[in-house]
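Let's sit down with a protein and look at its sequence and fold side by side. Go ahead whenever you are ready, and we will take it from there.
>
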Amino acid sequence: MKKLLFISFLSLVSVIDTFGQLSSVTQELTFPLTVLKNNVNGSFYLVNHFDSPKTVKVVSLLPVFTPVDTLVTIPANDSAQITVVYRPTQNVTDKSFLAFYTTDSSASYAVVLNGSGSTGDSYQTTTFDKFDAELKTALNGLVINHISLGYNSARDRMFETIDDLGSDTIECVYTGIKIKAANRTTAQNLGFDTEHTWPQGTFSQAEPMRSDLYHLYPTNSSANNTRSNYNFGVVTSGVTWTVGGSKLGNGTGGTVFEPRDSHKGNVARSMLYFILRYPTNYQSYLNVSQESVFRVWNWSDPVDARELGRNVAITTLQMRRNPLIDHPEFIDRVYSFINNNSASPSSKLNIFPKGVVFDTVYVNDSAYVSMWLINSGNKVLTIANSSISNPVFKFVNMPIQVAANSAVEVLISFKPVAVGNVAGLIDINSDGGSFSGMVKGVSDIGTGIGDENKTTLIINSFTLKQNYPNPFNPQTKIGFTVPNITGNLSFVKLAVYDVVGNEVALLVNEEKAPGDHQVTFDASNLPGGVYFYRMETTGFAETKKLVLLK
């Protein structure tokens, strides 16, 4: 088989075309591994194939990907650079989509976005892309077998160094009351105790839980006694005690203790650390209500320098860190700390644009506009039903299902039967949500084949159309036009090539009359992948891309 010269072949394939009038030089933008909360930029060019300028809305479906510009105006038959900022918040693989649609709803497009976050430290290898029970197991492996100091020694270190604010100043974590005490004995004589955030009575004061400094804090005795073994929660009424912002009163499930705002995050990370380190819910103390509150407190009271310093100080003694202080975002990747349940997978339907508008189409001719169906969920999306109320509009390729975290370009055809303005209501229902939108078009009397009372349509240039469907399996149709300026036949060659330029199929190799032509390419005998088709004739050559899915 003939091989197309690869260098010239690549130079011709500069833009990926679709039935729509927007395209890009890439359908996928991949960012390098990026440390959490750092920014990295990626860019590509969005092409406007219309003969008029278009203003395009840019929408990201995942907050870690942010377009620099959300509204871009692209000149006619020109392109504009689209820049996207990736700022990961978890050390996971992020995949999403950037959706584009013109403000006049005449075209849409979508580009895949890929990125991966890194913790930038020793946690990366152990925790990357792990969730739920798998992540809990990984973190447990990092915190087990710590050095247990014993209860008296742990309390000594807590009062003498770990919670010494300087100059032997000790502060009650619940009330803010401060004392001067160089050691535990002095602190206790001044009315301070050791608070076990996870009540020690639930595990019968057993070691190493009792002396684990990650849930031990200095407290004023009165506050310690008031907290007792009550669940943590938000007090909504019936306050019976309040000092320094902490309070006891009614909340979800009965009486609850609410610590002051500056200690709420510490409580959350201490409690969730405890059940992570000791995967036993002693006396079922941790309940759904408390866990929900801890997730809120984890972010309302973020880790500060003091808590980080405490983590370092305890690490020098116990030789293990609290990973939820180092990376509080891990909490969001665990669906349940109480058990090993995982969130049920779900699908989510996104559609762009929200409505479709056709340019003027001649009566009995057909035109096509794309809509993009994007499933941003982690479960296959099933289309229950889809319809357009006006029969002059039809879905050409509405899928039954859309794979998780993937997009499908759906064509809507418009074949008017009478002159005038027409409209229809689009309805799409799925297990990932529903969509309703309008489709509009204008029809006029034109010239064309089958219109006996009108002049013959003059075709004045060769054209090679984008194949449809694309991607495809195993057949697709390719259209092309031969001009009729002179009325003569034109010799046309249309062939398909693989990515290295080998000719894999010869579809047309003969003289063709003026007009529109269409051929079917059957790729049953070829492996899946990217291919290119090229039309060559006197004074004209064009190449386009097609994708075979297998």
Q: What stands out?
A: The two ends are 23 Å apart (CA to CA). The first strand starts at residue 22 and ends at 24. Confidence is low (pLDDT under 50) at residues 1-19, 447-459.
